[in-house]
Design a protein that fits this description.
By secondary structure, the protein is α+β, with helices and mostly antiparallel strands. Helix content is 26%, strand content 32%. The strands form 3 sheets. Strands 13-17-18-16-15-14 form a 6-stranded mixed beta sheet. A 6-stranded antiparallel beta sheet has the order 19-20-21-22-23-24. It has a 5-stranded mixed barrel with strand order 7-9-10-12-11.
Length: 535
């Protein structure tokens, strides 16, 4: 019999979930039903799987783990389209014998799991919604001690009062910093592998780290150590495939789980270059949150070894460098109240134990340069305010701005483009336009690029689009006219201003800069062989 997998709160890559696959299941005769219901006659082991043979001669193939909870006489229910079954397939196994203490089994994909709340008997529970349920069950009711005994323990075969704490597994103090926890996690992992410890011990260690490395889960765990009846969170808010034992409510819409048998979160592995300027730095951790792609990654000093602190937030937006990140992401989310309604907001969070970071070779030089630039900003604050006042009323060409910088005592190598730069802006757009421009003008919070084929207006800030105009006969006349209108005037062609400025198109930055670049090149009439600045 296959042993129960030692699942993590967030599973490691390659962990197996007990699924079923169809083997000659005949459809029900009823044309209106899409649910298959069968009675188990016997179980026949077949290597790492077991065949459940039904009384009508049909059968299915299931993992040995799932088959270990099935007995002859059990009633099997599942959607007819089981030939495409996976861990997200709904399966209900009912024990028809009321005198037996054996519980029913239910496997289903779940979405959001609520925050802990109290039922009518004053017991704390969490409700996980069944995603796209077809068996009539819309929610799984999980008592907090059920969550505690699955996600917040090192050994799932021991009672809570006999569990070693996660801190004891790492041999660290309960006040250990995130960086100390990561180092302890690596060292204990090496020790366990050297001693050829069971895979379940390594899984328990990783599960413990994935709980303690997330602030909200660590706080929840610390509360459970103090009071075993404290509220327990469903890690990362649910979102995955859940296999539970329990019973169905009288109305049939809720499944009351007495035990979690397995959980596999929705996850994917992704590698990408991450702009360091978008990281927010705190005293003991740093966080990267991409509002568009909805990613979230938490770093500690051991994972991102740059000796940072919270003062980095004052100048980190000046960093042009990107670091390489490879991580396993899991789906998460929560409900937010907006405009009188509740909306589910979802994003992806990186699993702490499954994050790898690659730093550029010259990152220390880039950090030093960003610090120097920030220092110059501080020294030249009054002069920069005067420059901003000058560009508020009329566009100024880069060469004229450099002359003003010299007159105001600003160092000659200061980049005037930084006057209006915002931390959330992607430098890719600026580099591509600057590479094509003959002259650059700075106006208010914008850049005006004078290209050979067109005039392009760019706002170096997240959420803004690129405006493309036909090449004017006089750049001076264009600038005078443009300085007296707004983007809203151009979009709505008030007083025929869009035609007077020869407005062509508005390019949305979007989530993929290459799409923007393709549209820009098309608008400029560039061929596929035209020169292009690599990013």
């Amino acid at each position: 019999m296959q042993k129960e997998p030692a699942y993590l709160a967030i599973c490691p890559t390659g962990a197996r979930f007990p699924t079923v696959m169809a083997l000659a299941v005949q459809q029900d005769a009823g044309p209106t039903s899409d649910i298959c219901q069968r009675v188990v006659l016997r179980i026949h082991p077949k290597g790492d799987r077991s065949e459940s043979i039904f009384t009508d001669g049909t059968s299915i193939l299931a993992s040995n783990f799932l088959a270990s909870f099935i007995r002859p006489g059990d009633e099997f229910s599942f959607p007819l389209a089981l030939e495409a079954a996976n861990a997200r397939t709904e399966i209900y196994v009912r024990n028809p014998n009321p005198e037996s203490r054996r519980r029913d089994i239910f496997q289903a994909p779940v979405g959001y799991a609520t925050q802990p709340q109290k039922d009518k008997r004053n017991n704390l529970f969490v409700s996980a919604e069944v995603a796209g349920g077809r068996l009539g069950i819309s929610a799984i009711h999980l008592r907090c001690e059920t969550l505690r005994d699955y996600f917040y323990v090192g050994n799932r075969r021991k009672a809570w009062d006999r569990q070693p704490s996660f801190y004891e597994l790492f041999r660290v103090d309960s006040k250990a910093s995130p960086a100390d926890l990561r180092l302890a996690f690596k060292l204990r992992g090496l020790e366990l592998r050297a001693s050829r410890a069971p895979a379940s011990d390594l899984a328990s260690l990783e599960r413990a780290f994935n709980i303690l490395a997330r602030p909200e889960l660590r706080s929840c765990y610390d509360s459970l150590l103090t009071d075993s009846a404290a509220p327990a969170l469903f890690p990362y808010g649910g979102f995955g495939s859940l296999l539970v034992a329990g019973g169905r409510a009288s109305d049939g819409r809720t499944f009351y789980a007495s035990r979690i048998l397995a959980f596999l979160p929705d996850r994917r592995v992704k590698s990408f270059p991450m702009p360091l300027r978008k990281v927010t730095f705190y005293a003991d951790r740093a966080a990267y949150r991409d509002s568009r792609r909805k990613f979230e990654i938490l770093f500690d000093q051991a994972l991102l070894p740059l000796s940072w602190d919270s003062t980095w937030n004052q100048w980190a937006h000046l960093l042009a460098t990107k670091i390489g990140v490879k991580a396993t992401f899991v789906q998460t989310g929560k409900y937010q109240h907006r405009a009188g309604e509740w909306h589910l907001v979802e994003w992806e969070a990186a699993v702490p134990s499954r994050i790898d970071v690659q730093l550029p070779a010259n990152i220390e030089e880039q950090i030093a340069e960003a610090r120097r630039t920030h220092h110059r900003f501080g020294q030249c604050a009054q002069a920069l305010d005067r420059l901003r006042q000058r560009i508020e009323s009329a566009p100024l060409e880069r060469a004229d701005l450099q002359k003003l910088c010299a007159a105001f005592g600003i160092p000659h190598d200061f980049d005037v483009a930084l006057i209006t730069w915002r931390p959330d802006y992607n430098a890719f757009y600026y580099r591509q336009l600057s590479n094509r421009a003959r002259r650059l003008y700075v106006f208010r919070s914008e850049y005006i690029f004078d290209l050979e084929q067109a005039v392009v207006v760019e706002t170096p800030q997240l959420g803004h689009a690129t405006y493309v105009f036909s090449k004017p006969a006089s750049m001076t006349d264009f600038l005078v006219l443009y300085s007296h209108v707004t983007k809203d005037d151009i979009r709505h062609n008030r007083n025929n201003i869009a035609e007077k400025l020869a407005f062509q198109t508005r390019l949305i930055h979007g989530t993929n800069p290459q799409v923007w670049l393709k549209e820009l090149r098309a608008g400029l009439g560039e061929t596929s062989g035209s020169a292009e600045l690599p990013d």
